[in-house]
Amino acid sequence: MYSTNTIFHPSQSFPKDVDIIILNTSPTDRESIKSSITTTDSRFFLISAKNPRDKYKILWFSTGLSYPRRCKVDILTPGLLNIPQIPTNRLVRLDPYNNLPLLPFIPLLLLKVQGWSHHRSALDKLHHRKKVPQDVRDVEELVGIAVQKGFRRKDEEAWMAKEFVEIATRYVTEYQLVNWHFRSVKGKEWARIMD
Fold first, then answer.
1. How far apart are alpha carbons 143 and 32 in whole angstroms?
2. Which terminus of the chain has fewer CB atoms gathered within 10 Å of its CB, N or C?
3. Where are the alpha helices (DSSP H) in 84-152?
4. Rounded distance, CA 12 to CA 14, Å?
5. Segment 82-118, tens digit of pLDDT
6. Dihedral sign, Cα of residue 184, residue 146, residue 168, residue 135
7. CA atoms of 90 and 75, how far apart (whole Å)
8. What global pTM score does this model have?
9. Using CA atoms, how far apart are residues 36 and 22, in angstroms rounded to an integer?
């Protein structure tokens, strides 16, 4: 998931990666979905994984301009990385993005905190730990938006799996303990969201 700044101010930044969650499919379909995307749009292409034993391909998007910018595209499915199954009536649609269905805000925030925790604890993977500062900026930005818009966990909790909520709550507690000095924790913004 990339910075919300990209969504609200698209001219200001270009994401390094984008996560696309495909609903109503199995994890084994991800490779065929990637292949299908590349045959539909030439701006997408596949490269082999770094480890030659891995059978999967990595999907990339290129702007195709004179000075092309590239973005890694991860195809995800519910169940992977604790991603909850999302009822279609809970999806958010934004007009400027061709009515593209988006993840509801609270699960997005909770998954971003989970990503921060995973990157932070990846002791053997420096490239994951390098993502932590951007993760924190993203989380802080998302928390600010959640408070401003009045998004709260209890408004989404009815459809989210209990296990997802419990795990996410543990990640939020970890985030608050580690980042106690940030505005979102000191200003009790998390308390308003998680109440």
1. 35
2. C
3. 105-120, 126-129, 132-149
4. 7
5. 899 999 889 888 766 666 788 899 999 999 999 999 9
6. negative
7. 20
8. 0.81
9. 13
